[in-house]
Amino acid sequence: MGFNAFKLAEELWPLNRSLINSDTAKTLRRITSDCGGKVRIHEFKSGSKVGDWEIPQGWEVSEAYIEDLAGNRIIDWSENNLHLMSYSVHIDQFVTKEVLLKHLHFDKAKPNWIPYRTSYYKRNWAFCVAFNDLEKFTDAEYHVVINAEFIEASLEVGDLEFKGKSESEVVFTTYVCHPSMANNELSGPVVLNAIAKYVSSLDNYYTYRFLFWPETIGSIAYLSQELDNLKKNVVAGFVVTCVGDNRDWGYIPSRTGITLPDWISKRVLKKEQKNYTEYSFLERGSDERQLCSPSVNLPFASITRSKYGTYPEYHTSGDDLNFISAEALQESINLFLKIIDEFESNRIYISTNLGEPMYSKYALRSSLGALPTLTELESQYTNIAALSDGTLDTLEISEILQQPHYHIKNLCEKLWSLGILKLL
């Protein structure tokens, strides 16, 4: 699976993805086309209002370069997609070196790498260059060409669903809007493609949904349309990004840090990866910003390898295909398969009563009142019902009560058969 995921990353690598363009559309269709399941492409037209945002126009580029006065191309977008700031406007003119330098982005701290820059919501143009390449600019004037156009189009979100016996959903999200970055972009889509194929082979209890969108604006657009359904059905969600390198493991909690994906993320990481960094929610940076925002408040956590913003290659040309590997992708795939196995082998319950149930009515407690203590079994029934709030699964409850998992599952099934608990 890791080898195939890497081959898919190689296939998608040349495409000039951005918020809305033909290469992003190609990426969406490629990664959802061979997984099975029900595929739906949600479309949001340019100019549409979504939350506090507006869907931008589509952006298509055919060529972009900077030539010196002798006609030599100093910078050519065809050699690396990162050379052109995303959503740059059309230009074909000679400019002075002084003017050109105001439209060049570089990073002195990372002199050999091209930085990644965007200007989605303000019309501008710029090229991105390695700092060490600035010495190539020795002429007084340069010919700058960007053949780009803005078109009325639709932002697209890929929605891949695998129905289970339960309506309760486990959701995995990633983004498809970054050009030519392997860990920060392609690792998420190719890992989700692999685990979606795994889910397609299951007789799954839970419904699994995989969402592929442009970061930030894509998640907000989808929430504007699907929030009620998500609030009704989602029991856990995971933002998947930066999972292709072989360095660290990281976990970013939900806003509260006490949701089901928080428990399961930490449980699986402790079992499978002894050392990992647990970040604060204040260090969030991907679509957990939207999914866990106060007005949305969905149970989402994030598992990464080297977390975005913490490794030198982040948002530069250093994050290339040499930075990820089939072996590391396989490790990440394995970890998410363990998470799916946790959901499929355990169950999540929620109490159905207003306050405590009348246990004696169900023969779960003596009808004689004022006894000094409960029996051990009576206490276990009481505690299970008290802990069954939809954020803990049976394994987590068994660990809290320090009882064998099979025993807690049996007691939960008893409470469920009596209508005291309901399954999520």
Structure description:
By secondary structure, this protein is α/β, with parallel strands linked by helices. The protein has three domains: 2-56 and 154-345, Zn peptidases (Aminopeptidase, 3-Layer(aba) Sandwich), CATH 3.40.630; 58-151, Glucose Oxidase, domain 1; 348-423, Arc Repressor Mutant, subunit A (Orthogonal Bundle). It is built from eleven helices and 19 strands. The strands form five sheets. The chain has an eight-stranded mixed sheet with strand order 1-10-12-11-13-16-14-15, with helices on both faces. Helix 6 crosses helix 8 (326-345) and helix 9 (376-387) packs across helix 11 (405-417). The protein is elongated and about 100 Å long.
Quick gist of this model?
The protein is α/β, with parallel strands linked by helices.
Summarize the SSE layout with pairings:
Blueprint: H1 2-12, H2 22-32, E1 38-45, E2 49-50, E3 53-54, E4 58-67, E5 73-76, E6 91-96, H3 97-101, E7 104-105, E8 127-128, E9 141-151, E10 154-162, E11 169-175, H4 182-200, E12 207-213, H5 217-233, E13 234-240, E14 250-252, H6 260-272, E15 277-278, H7 288-291, E16 300-304, H8 326-345, E17 348-351, H9 376-387, E18 389-393, H10 394-401, H11 405-417, E19 421-423
Parallel strand pairs: 7-8, 11-12, 11-13, 13-16, 14-15
Antiparallel strand pairs: 1-10, 2-3, 4-5, 4-9, 6-9, 10-12, 14-16, 17-18, 17-19
Helix pairs in contact: 1-4, 1-8, 4-8, 6-8, 9-11, 10-11
